[in-house]
Amino acid sequence: MKTEKSVKEIMPGLLKRLKRKAIVVEEPIACGCGREAPPDYAIWKGKYTCSRCRRKRIAEGDIRKALRRAGVPDDYLEASFDTFQCFKDLQEHFSACIRYADGPSGTIFLYGDNDHGKSHLGIAILRDLCLQGFSVAYCHVPRLFREISQSYDSKTARKERWFIERYGRAEFLLLDDIGAEYMTPFKESLLYQILDEQVTKAETRMAVTSNFDLEQIEKSYSGRISTRIARKMVEQVEFRGKRYRLR
Question: E strand or H helix at 177, and its extent?
Answer without folding.
Answer: strand 172-178
